[in-house]
Amino acid sequence: MGTNRILSPEKFHFRMPFFSKITVPNPVLLDQGFDTETTGAAPSGWTVSEGTGTSVAVVQGPDREGKSVYLRDTSATGMATMSRAFAAQSRAITLRWDWKEKAAGGWSRALVTGGSTTVVDIATQRDATGKHLAYRTPSGTWQVLQAIADDTWYSIKVTVDPTPPQGAAPWVDIFVGGVRKAHHVPLLSSPASFGKLHFQTNPNRTSDLYVDNVNVVVTESVNCEGTSQEVMDQEIRYAVAAGIDYWAFDYYPQQPLARARELYLSSDLNNQVNWCAILDGNFMAQYDANLTELVARFGESNYQKVLDGRPLVYILNNATAEKVAKMRSKATSAGLPDPYIVVMGWTAQGVADVKATVGADAVSRYATGQADGASYSSLTSLEASLWSDYAGAAGQVIPTVSTGWDPRPMYEYPVPWGVQPSDDYLGLEDQWTQQATPTDIAHHLGEAISWTNSHSANVPANAVLIYAWNEHLEGGWICPTMHEMQNSGRPLRLDAIAGVPRTA
Question: Fewer CB in a 10 Å sphere around the end CB: N or C, the chain?
Fold first, then answer.
């Protein structure tokens, strides 16, 4: 919906849905490693300034293969600088470089500027507490990022967003060695555009600085416009062709997240794929008003029914006995069958306890993932065991079939609704499972259907729930992707699902 920065790093492009378009043909603005340049010469393309007792030149090493740029400063009154302009941007960009000082904390600086205005200022510093890497705040104070050591290379990544979505304030994120050290800190200023990277030694002391592997890319490189009736209608056609019976919408009452459900309901094709609701805190926050709208949908022909006409409802969180009873009462008052209410939880006994407490009919699980790049087969093995665990604890269950788990894009570019620096957002870097093949997903779905058929007493609803149609950000999807359609011309995951028998 709108501009998508979340999945725009190149390594995640393969996940983008089929309707996405790359809007920046060449997002690389600068990529320079200096290895092919002439030793002893100034770095090509950079504007160099050498004060008295200083020099800027390409050198071999010193402690790595290839070459780097050495800013040498033997003067306490001058400084060595190197600046490189790139195409001025008013969009989000990511800058990377490696640097080191022989004697750390020499107040070397890296600056991102727009014209003569500094946007980001990062420096090495030395004081009574030690040697540190720090950034300058708008008030002029320095905020420490981490300690640094002599003669040690550090990889720096800086993401600058001057125009964040939904009117958020401009910000910068700073990574050191792949670990986020500063999250959404304010820019020093907000020029109309910025287009220069600048390195310098300190003008008031002797120091040195090595710089290597400088890279600048446009972060905002994907335009993801899925909010049209045309796109929704095509998604319905894809689902029908794969033999999908229903979509379980995360029921967002608010805009713009309600738009997907609205486009489905307004489609001329909406009777070809049924739908039901997954209720979370967004729905529960104004339960009575939202429940009236939902119960009115229960009687419509395309709302998913189970067990001879009972409307299917999943509750992800905030279920209470009062709310479950109110849903049943409203349905009865409307002359509708009793809804089949399924509560979701992350442990078998935990969700079984919720089921008993609130008076639900069955239990399920939203998704299953593994960490540290575990194999997809380890995910499916775990999930298959959970079907029996949940059934053993709660009786009735709807098995979940997870197609993957990899929320690392939210580590690369944290989302406003996700975990934030005050929470365990750094853990997202390791919370991922290796990507499944279409065959892997089909096999896992087949296992779930076979298990369902052999445990009919535990699955009277005769249903499974696939995670997910379009959780591209979290790594679980079956919706066709741009990668599939451009490279193969077919929705490969859906093709595989279409071939899975629906009977024992």
Answer: C
CATH fold, domain 24-220, is: Jelly Rolls (2.60.120)
Assess contact for 432 and 408: CB atoms under 8 A: yes
**Angstrom distance (rounded) from CA 498 to CA 492:** 10
pLDDT digits (tens, 9 = 90+) for 164-184: 776 778 999 999 998 889 988
**pLDDT band at residue 488, thresholds of 50, 70 and 90?**
very high
Q: Where are the domains of the chain?
A: 24-220, 229-498
Question: Which class in CATH covers the domain with range 229-498?
Answer: alpha beta
Task: Answer whether 24-220 and 229-498 agree in fold.
Answer: no
Q: What are residue 302's phi and psi, to 5 degrees?
A: -95, 5
SS (H, E, C) 193-209: CEEEEEEECCCCCCEEE
Give pLDDT tens digits for 254-307: 998 899 999 999 999 999 999 999 999 999 999 999 999 999 999 999 999 999
Question: Does residue 164 have a cis bond before it (omega within 30 degrees)?
Answer: no
CA–CA distance, 317 with 307 (Å, rounded to integer): 24
Q: In what order do the strands lie in the sheet with 194-200?
A: 47-50, 80-89, 194-200, 109-114, 117-127, 130-136, 142-147
